[in-house]
Amino acid sequence: MASAMKIGIGRALLLFVALPVAANAQSPVGPKQPDDTVPYVTRSGDTLYGLAKFYLTSIKGVTELQQRSKVKIPRNMPTGYRLDIPRHLLRYTPITLRLVSFNGPVSAKSGGQVLAPSKGLELGEGAEITTGPGGFGLLSGSDGSRIALPSNTVISVARARKYVLFGAGDVELSVARGRAEIHAAKQVPYGEFRVRTPVATSAVRGTVFRAGFDPAAVISATEVEEGNVAVASPRSEFALPAGFGATANVTGDLAKEALLPAPVLLDLGKVQTDEQANFAVKPSGGARGYHFTVSRDAGFDDVIAEADSSAPAVAFADLKNGTYYLRAAAISTSGLQGLGEAWSFRRQRVGLAADAGQTGIPGGIRINWHAEGEGKSLFRFQMFAEGDATTPLIDEAGLDKPGLTLTGLRRGAYQWRLGVIQTTAEGSAEVWTPLQKFTVSN
C-alpha cells in the first residue's frame, strides 16, 4: 500500500507591518529621501531635461523634481548630487499578472468591466479579483512573483510596473477582505512589493509572505518563519525575529508572541478510503483552532479545499481518487496562524457493506456484500467463535465475486467480518467491516 509522505516546506518570511518599510538608500550629498521616492546620484553630463527625456513620464516632471530636490540650474548639475525622484514621475513598463489556475467561484473586474475567469487572463493596474466560498486562484506576475488567493478574498492591483531608470519592479496590492499568500520576486535595489489593507501595509524585498485583513475585527497580523521583520504602527515599533508573530489593531497597538509549533499528523500513511477524507492532528497547547489546506501540488499553488476547525480534526468531502497534499497549522488565541507542516496522502474511495441472512439449508447462512470504488476487488471472509476474534474458524481469501454460503454449521453464536483489497494504478487499499454476529439455531 502507498503511504503518506512528510513534505518539507521552504521556510517562509511572513510579514505584515502597520506602516511601510522604507527602502534604505545612501548618497554622498543632497536632502533626505522622502517617502515614495527613489534616490538617483547624478553622473557627469546629467541634466534634469536629459533625465526627463529618457526616464520620466513627461518633461513636465522637471519642475516638480527641481523643486523637490532643490536643483538651482536644471541644465547644469554637479556630479554626485542626489535627486529624490517621486515614483509617480518615473517612466515604466507594465508588470502583468496572469491567472494561471483557479477552482470554484472566482471573478475579476478591470476598467469597470466584469471579466470571465480563464487561464491566462491578464490583470493590470486597477484590476480586482474576488474568490467566493470554496474558490481559489493563483496569479503569476511577469516579474516572477506568485500570488495565491484562498477563498473569500478580495484584492485589487494598485500598482504593477517596472521602472526604466533602475530596472526595478514596483508592485502594490490592496486586500479589502481575506488574505493573499505571496511569493514576491527578488527585488533589485529600490524595487518594492507591498500589500496594503485598510489599516496596515506590508513591504518586502523578495520573499514569501502572507498578508490579510479581517474587516469585522479590524485586525492585521505578522507571522515570521525566517529572518527579522520590522513591525511598526503609529504608536510603536519593534523587530520581530523568526518564530514570532504580532497583531496590530486599528488603534495601532502591537502585541508580540511566539508562534505555535507545527502540528503532528496522526495516522501518517493512512490511505483515505472513507466517504469523507478524515484527518486528525495532535492537539497543540494554547491553540483555539486549526487551519487545514488541501492542494493537488506540494507547493500549494493548486489549492482545492481549506477549512478552519475548533477541534484538531477535519473532514473533506468530494475528493476524487488521487494523490494530494495536506497542510495544517495551529491558530493561537490571538488569531495568529502558527508554523505549518505538510504531508502527502493518497485518496482511494473504497466502500464495503455486508450482511448475513438465513437460507433454506439447515444450519446454512448466506453472507452478501457490496463494494464501492474503482479498480479490481478481492474479498476475504473470516468467521470466529463468539468471544474469540483472534483465531478464525473460517478464513477465505482471494474471493473475486460477492456472496458466500456457509453450510454445516453447528448451533451457536458466531462473529464474522469481511475485508476487501481494491487495487488501482496508484496502489492498493484495504477495508474491513466491523465484527458482526449471527446465531445458528437449527
3D structure, described in words:
- By secondary structure, the protein is mainly beta.
- The protein has four domains: 37-89, Roll (Membrane-bound Lytic Murein Transglycosylase D, Chain A), CATH 3.10.350; 93-258, Jelly Rolls (Sandwich); 261-347, Immunoglobulin-like, CATH 2.60.40.10; 350-440, Immunoglobulins (Immunoglobulin-like), CATH 2.60.40.10.
- Helices cover 4% and strands 50% of the residues.
- It has two helices and 35 strands.
- It has helices spanning 48-55, 61-69, and strands spanning 5-7, 37-41, 82-86, 92-94, 97-103, 106-110, 113-115, 121-123, 128-131, 136-141, 146-149, 153-163, 169-183, 192-196, 201-204, 208-213, 219-223, 229-232, 237-240, 244-249, 254-258, 277-280, 287-295, 303-309, 313-316, 322-332, 337-347, 350-358, 365-373, 376-385, 394-399, 404-406, 412-424, 427-432, 436-440.
- Strands 4, 5, 6, 7, 8, 9, 10, 11, 12, 13, 14, 15 and 16 form a 13-stranded mixed sheet that branches. It has a five-stranded antiparallel sheet with strand order 1-27-26-23-24, with no helix packed on it.
- The chain is elongated, with a radius of gyration of 31 Å.
- Residues 8-34 have low confidence and may be disordered.
